[in-house]
Amino acid sequence: MNASKSFAWTFKRCMQENTLNNESKTPTPLETSGDGRLSVAYFAPGWPPGAFSNGIVTYVASIAKGIRELGHEPHVLTYQLERSNASNRGHQNVLELSSRRRSGEIMGRLRDAVGLRIRPERFFRAAFARGVRRGVEALMTSGDLDLLEIEESFGMAGFLRDRLSVPIVLRLHGPWFLNGAAMGAPQEEDFLHRVQDEGQTIANAFAVTAPSQDVLEQTRQYYQLPLEHAVVIPCPIAPTPSEQRWQPQHCDPNVIGFIGRFDRHKGGDLIIDAFAEVLQDFPNTRLIFAGPDRGFRDDNGRKWQLEEYVRDRLPGALETGQIEWLGQQPPAVLTDLRRRAQITVVASRYDNFPYTALEALSLGCPIVAARAGGIPEIVTDEVSGLLFQSGDAADLAIQLRRLLQDPGWAAQLGHQAAESCAERFSPTVVAQQSIDFYRETLARWSSSSGSLEELRGAQRQRS
């Protein structure tokens, strides 16, 4: 069911409000420090990257690296800080958030108790916004902060819009009308509420970035929004030195690698079905599947677990090692798998700008990926990899056979992938695009809202 029409009246009103708020004015010079350095805060669901298998966390780590290398100051705000992780020791500019009421806020605690019973979803969003606001205020008191970038999920950023004195850049990491549908989530009341909340937040955003042109255009079309102050800025990834890349002489020519969840969204079923067809022509091939088992719900509504699905499609494959399931693994193990495999597969039914594809390209792996979402903006068909029709296991099998039949061509595609990835997606390249957009955003903000210094001074007084 397409719910966009039922939301049209809401977003028409939001568009009118957004147009008034974002009406273009002649930009005025920014009142930043003399050296032009920007201070940018990024919200991450968890930290550090080594402790959380999450694309947004990976993005924040990569963009922060690029921002820092360009001489600017990134900050990370998170509610989940893994203090025991060795990679986090000594890491600067990471602030753990807390949404708990302070001891003297008795009336606030009473309101929370009532709100949790009456409208729990609103309570959690308000609590989320309270913690982020405190984090921003803490950064403001210790030094200048120019801007906050945060995801669109659940419309949480909408609760911050009128509570901060710095502009918010909304990052379209994965709107629920796209990701929820790809996951097969029932389009019931909770689904529709989340879609509507995210849409209202997107409509009222002061500035928007999207990793792919696909997600930006689909968002515009679904919510019927112009999003005039929105740009495409890809996700960054550090280039892999040539001596550390995938090498044909060091891989196993009989191994196909898949990294992702076993669920409908990531297409874990598709690679198993395609592998069964590939075995007819390449009986010595093995599939190594690395990722958690979230269960796959088929078109008839039946939910399959991974081992059950494999035994139905390929009896005995798990026992003989023809299919090896590793479960969820740390990044180092996944990197080794990519170097070991002759082909890496990304089979998502939809993905915005997946790091599973970026990481394979950076390593120079031969890749077969779905023609879905923003993936064709990462992988150029027959130049840096091969694309198959999303959701089509038979077409995936055809593309796998092409590379297995011609390992020399596969190696050539992998080399071109690594070179292209380094040129287009390195952290400094993407960070410069981000900084340019941040400056444009700050110019509009300064023009429409008064000088940044006045705003910062007012917030310090409130703190």
From TrEMBL:
The keyword Transferase belongs to this UniProt entry's keyword annotation: yes
Domain Glycosyltransferase subfamily 4-like N-terminal: 54-237
Gene3D superfamilies: Glycogen Phosphorylase B
Domain Glycosyl transferase family as annotated: residue spans: 245-418
Superkingdom of origin: Bacteria
Keywords in alphabetical order: Glycosyltransferase, Transferase
Keyword Transcription regulation: no
A single MF term (Gene Ontology): glycosyltransferase activity
InterPro entries: Glyco_trans_1, Glyco_trans_4-like_N
Name the UniProt record assigns to this protein: Glycosyltransferase family 1 protein
Organism: Stenomitos frigidus ULC18
